[in-house]
Each structure stands twice: as C-alpha cells, then as structure tokens.
Amino acid sequence: MTIARLIALDQILFVLVAAAWAATAGIALTGLRQPAAAGRRTRLIAAASCAAAIVVTALRVAVTAGLAGAGWWFVAEKVALALPLVVVPALVSAAVSLPRLLRGTATGSPSDFPADIPAGIPAGIPAGSARIVAFPLLVTAYGAVAGIACAVVISYPVTAGGAAAVLALFAAASAATWRLLGPARSPRHAWQAAGTCVLALALALTIGGGWPSGHLHSEHDAGGHDAGGRGVSVDLLRGPAPAAAGGPAGARERIRRFTLTAQPATVRLPSGGGAEAWSFNGQVPGPVLRVRQGDLVEVVLRNRLPVRESAEQAGTGQGVTIHWHGYDVPAAEDGVPGVTQDAVWPGQTHVYRFRAEDAGTYWYHSHQNSSVAVPRGLFGLLVVDPATPVPESEDHVLALHTFGSRPTLSVDGAAPSDLLTHLPLPPGARTRLRVVNTDTQPVVLGLSGAPYRIAAVDGGDVPGATDLDGARLHLAAGGRYDLTFTVPSGPVLLTAGNRPALLVNGPATPPPAAGPIVDITRYGTPAALPARFDRETTWVLDKTLAVSGGLPRLAQTVNGKAWPNIPTPVVRQGETVRIRVVNRGTDTHPMHPHGHHVRILSRNGVLATGLPMDTFDVAPGEVWEVALVADNPGVWMSHCHDLAHAAQGMEFHLAYEGVTTPYDMTNGNHPA
After folding, report:
1. Alpha-carbon Rg of the chain, whole angstroms?
2. Closest to 181 (Cα-Cα) out of 134, 228, 142
3. How confident is the model over 28-54, as a mean pLDDT?
4. pTM of this prediction?
5. Cβ–Cβ under 8 Å, residues 481 and 473
6. Percent of the chain at pLDDT above 90?
C-alpha cells in the first residue's frame, strides 16, 4: 500500500478508534447501571464492541508501523503521544474489562454487577468491580480522542508544550472519571471534578503556549525587517537602469518596454459561457511578453480597476502587482506585496525592470490577493528567446486556465477556448509547444500522433532529452513544459486532463495518449549534483489546526505552523542548502520558491537527474529533496502554488542574512 493510502487510512482509523472506544464505554456504563439479569444483553453488546475496538486499535498500530517506514515525520505525534495514550489503556481494557463483561454475560453474577445501581444517579456508580470495568474503557476513549487532537492540533513536530497540554487534559479527565465512578457522594463532588477539568484545561493552554498572538507579519521580524537601520534594504536590489550602461555600449543596448494595465474585462467562451474578469490590457490572458536573451525589460504597471469602498481598504479597491513566475529577477522586482513592494492601488503605477538573462518559458501574474486575482484573469505569459536562433520553425505558447469549472486553452495570447482548438502547421515543421499551467491544480498532458521530447522544464533546457511516444506528463500548477516534435503528415492531439485541447491539422483526431506518466525527476541525462551542503532544513507540509490571520483555524501548515507564524529560514549568499519537503497530508502541494530554481536531488529516496525546477508537485506521502544555491540576495516568498492553500497559511519567506525589507502587511498588502 502506498504512503498516500496509508495516510488516508490512518485519518479514517483515528476517528474510528475514538468512536469505537467511546461507544464501548457508553454501552458498558449502560449495562452496569442495569440489574444483573436484565443487563446481560447490554453487557454482551459492550463486550463485542470492546473486541471490535481492540481490533481497530491494532489496525491503527499496524498502519503506523507502515508509515514509520517512510520516515519519522509521518508518525512522530502517533508514536510519542497518540498511540501510547490509547494502546496502554486498551491493553488494560482487554485484560480487565473484557473478561469481566464476558463473565457477567454468562453468569449475571451480582457480585460483578451490583443490582442496586439506579439509572441516572449524578454522583456515579458505586465502587467495586463496576468501577474496575468502566474506568479502563473510559480512559481508553479519552486516549483515542487525544489521538485526534494530536493529529489535528500537534502534527509535526511534537513540541514539549503541546505534549504537556494533551497529557494534562488526559490526566485531568482520567482523575475526574475515577472520582465520579467512586462511591456515591453529594453533587458537590461532581462539581469539584468538573472544576478540576476546567483548571486542567487552563493549565494545558498555559503550558502549550495557548494560541500565539503574534502580530500580522512576525515572520519578517525573524528574517528580514530592519529594526535598527542595519543591513541592505530589498529596495536597493533592483534591476539595472538604462542609463547605467552609458556610452556607446548603452546606445546599442536593446530595451523592451511594455505597459500592462489592470482593468475589468469580460471573458466570452466559444461554448457560450463566460465570466467577469480582471485583465491586463483588457485581455485574458494578458499580452504575451516576448523578448530576446540579453534585453533590458521595462514594464510599467497601471492599475485601472474600479475604486470601491470597504471597511478593510477604504477607497482603494483591488490592488495589483506583477510577479515574474519562474524568472529569477532581482529581489525588488519580484512583485510580492508586503515583502518587496506595496500593492499598486487603483490610479497608481509601478515600474519593473530586469535583464532577460535566461532564455525559456515563464509567466507573470498579480501577487496581491493572488488566490482571487489569478483565477479571475490577472496573468500572462513571458517568453525569453535565446540569443542564438532555435531549430524550431514553429514556436507557440499555450496557457491552460480554468474559468469557474470550464478548463480553457489560449494559444499565443488569443482569447481562451473551452472547445477543441485547431492549429494548422505544415508537415515536416519542427515545432515547439510551450505549455504553461496557470491553474492552481496539476494537469496530466498527453501528446499523440507523433513522438515528442520534453525540451525544457520550467524554462531550463533538458540535457539528453529522449523521444516519448504515447507517454503522458504530470504538470504542476505554475509549471511549464516545452514539448518539441516534427509535424507528421497526420494530425497531432494534445490533451489536458480528460479533455482534447489542441488539434494540429486534422480533421481526423488521433486516439489520446494513454501511456504511463513520465517521472520527470528521472528524465534526461543526470547532472552533477552538490557533494556537500552548508545548511539543511526540512519543510513538513500538513493540514492542521493553527493560527492563521490572527485566529485558530484549520490551516495549511509548514512544520505545524501557518502564515504568519512560520519561522523564516535565513541563509548566507553563496551557501548551498539541502531542503527536504515532506507531505504528510492528503493534498498535493506545488511548492514554489521565489527567486531561485532548485535542483531535484531525489523523490522518495530515488535519486533524480538533478533537473532545475521552480515549481514541483509534492504529492501526499512524498518526500522530495532539493538543492538551493543562495545566489540571489533578497527576502523571498516561498509558498504552495495551489493559491488557495497559500491563502490558508502555506506561505513563508526565505531571507538572506543582512537583507532587510521596509514593507509589511499593513496598508492592505496581502500576497495570497
């Protein structure tokens, strides 16, 4: 069984274990309150329920053992807390409670089950064997419920405070139960037991640190805010100005200037559907920015979205920025509100400038409220052609995007289509299709009708690319593949998911690709990988209860914390950092570190070819190891590019030692 399935099974089991032991305890208490003869059937049901609960508990132990083989990250809170709290009392229940339930079922002995237990006595059951039977069952139920708390609240890593909080509540509930199951006393003792639990809860929250109340942008204080005027401000890490070249060389410098205006638009789909959108220059996707390697690129961003009044951002409306996805620009040009700039509000402008040094396929999008802005249309494509001509005579850019529930394809910046798009090409033409996934979910691509190669991944050429015929490709959200092939005499079909998206020539349609999915981490010729690392860090991804936006909520977390409480990793320029990314949740996370490509070292312990990527999908149960070379100083956002996950807390920052930022989350800045 795969690790992903074990994770899903474990999440089912910890609920079943708690339900089974709670039901067993409840049924047993009912049987113990009944006269010996009359309660025989109830006690039989309790015994059967206890046996079933033991089996389910044993199954969870087995699943945990399977998960342990994938790494400590998957079982830390289970082995350290959750399982001991349920397994130990479960063993006592099996040794003490179950035999007595069965013996009472067979004999109905009043010595085992007193007949004078009136139903509903608030002070509890009299002392004796009834207490001995019920107490282990109830404590096991408490331990099972604590196991749910461990999974939902503690996750990974297990902290001393969190463990102490769970243990304090467990101990208090157990002590109160022992008292309530004792000889009948006045109602005052029941209130004393309840008060003990309340005090234990307060103590647990105190020990565990309660809900952190850190201010909205605490991660920058840890990693990059300038509190004393020291360090280099991210504002100074800008792209070159045209005048900086100067002289005759400057006169020959090729400068490409663009203006992108954020404004409302309406998307009309060929099927008859449509959507109200936000756009760049009135079109969705925005204009394809096509430049040549070595060009100086200057982009003026204007915000012409409507001004609106709101309690949060009075008179400002929707802010925008431009983030150059996958392009390792200087830090100040990265377009992250609250980190490298303030959001650009309606009526304002901002200028981005960078040197197009790396050829390849990229894209751009707004990073202000990106989980809303990108799906609504604030994105476009960026292509940097190499300084020397490429062999392909046909070169086309394809953007995959979903409007509402309608997947669409845009070719070369044209209006998106939710129907099959036709692209006539001359037979024999060497062709490059630059496929960009601008959605927040991964997509499986298929190309049939001709053998093809993956010529580039995330903008970087693939050395030793080999022919693929009928194979399918998994493309992460935000990722890019350049597919090259020679146009045959017959048609070629590109599918995206289960949908035919692009037909080259035709009118006949070849069968869609149905081959295995290519392991992109093993494709191409292996590259030389770093032999040593200056730093190592681990990011454990999960969905747990955490503080996000100032409130406790079910959040997407990194190492048990959600934005803005995720600590900022700090690196030094020139260091090589090994990052281990572990997904112990049930969602796929396309991880995207800004300002850098990472080299893939391994996936699930299997060595990779070392492809450089800027967006890589970490599926449930997977463990990726990547290498990041700290060669681009700044304060950089890193996040899941399922932008809803980023908005739910899975975003943080990577900071360089000595680099500060004057920006924060005030003034309405909100990158996710």
Report:
1. 30
2. 134
3. 88
4. 0.89
5. yes
6. 76
pLDDT in tens, 540-564: 999 999 987 778 899 999 999 999 9
> Can you tell me the mean pLDDT for 206-225?
39
Residue 20: burial class (beta carbons within 10 Å; 0-12, 13-18, 19+): buried
Task: Tell me phi and psi for residue 148, to 5 degrees.
Answer: -65, -45
SS3 670: coil
Residue-wise pLDDT tens digits, 635-665: 999 999 999 999 999 999 999 999 999 999 9
Q: How many CB atoms lie within 10 A of CB 252?
A: 8
**Res 186 pLDDT > 80:** no
Measured between alpha carbons, how far is residue 120 from residues 30, 573, 644 in Å? Answer: 10, 70, 49
**DSSP track, 99-163:** HHHHHHHHH--TTTS-TT--TT-TT-PPSSHHHHHHHHHHHHHHHHHHHHHIIIII-SSPPHHHH
Q: For residue 26, which of 126, 134, 163 has the smallest C-alpha distance?
A: 134
Q: How far is CA 394 from the centre of its chain?
A: 37
CA neighbor of 208 nearest in space, from 247, 156, 153, 250? 153
Q: Are the C-beta atoms of residues 473 and 444 closer than 8 Å to each other?
A: yes
Question: Cβ contacts of residue 262 below 8 Å, gap of 6+?
Answer: 278, 279, 280, 301, 302, 303, 304, 305, 318, 320, 344, 366, 378
Q: Are 410 and 417 in contact (CB under 8 A)?
A: yes
- Rounded to the nearest 10 degrees, the angle between the axes of helix 40-68 and helix 83-92 is 140
Res 129: pLDDT: 65
User: How far is CA 60 from each of CA 86, 329, 549, 587, rounded to the nearest angstrom?
Assistant: 11, 48, 34, 21
Across the range 273-296, mean pLDDT stands at 96
- Name the CATH architecture for the domain at 218-235+526-660: Sandwich (2.60)
pLDDT digits (tens, 9 = 90+) for 137-184: 999 999 999 999 999 889 899 988 889 989 999 999 999 999 888 765
Question: DSSP readout, 342-390?
Answer: --B-TT-EEEEEEE--S-EEEEEE--TTHHHHTTTT-EEEEEEE-SSPP
Q: Does position 245 have pLDDT exceeding 90, yes or no? A: no
Q: Count of residues for the chain?
A: 672
Contacts for 604-610: CB closer than 8 Å, 24+ residues apart:
604/70, 606/521, 606/522, 607/526, 608/521, 608/522, 609/521, 609/522, 609/523, 609/524, 609/525, 609/526, 609/527, 610/526, 610/527, 610/528, 610/529
Q: Where are the beta strands (DSSP E) in 505-548?
A: 535-548
What does the block give as tokens for 68?
């342990």
* 467 class by beta-carbon count within 10 Å (0-12 exposed, 13-18 middle, 19+ buried): exposed
Q: What would the mean pLDDT of 576-605 be, rounded to a whole number?
A: 98
d(CA 157, CA 168): 19
Residue among 498, 494, 593, 468 nearest 537 (CA): 593
Q: Which CATH class is domain 390-518?
A: mainly beta
Residue among 247, 248, 358 at smallest CA distance from 297: 358
Q: Which strands, in side-by-side order, build the sheet including 296-303?
A: 274-280, 255-268, 296-303, 349-355
The token duo for 643 is: 């932008």
- pLDDT of 111 over the 90 cut: no
Q: How confident is the model over 337-394, as pLDDT tens digits?
A: 999 999 999 999 999 999 999 999 999 999 999 999 999 999 999 999 999 988 889 9
Task: DSSP for 603-646, please give it.
Answer: ETTEE----EES-EEE-TT-EEEEEEE--S-SEEEEEESSHHHH
Phi first, then psi, for residue 14 (nearest 5°) are: -70, -25
Residues of the chain with CATH 2.60.40.420: 218-235+526-660, 254-389, 390-518
- Tell me: domain 254-389, CATH 2.60.40.420, correct? yes
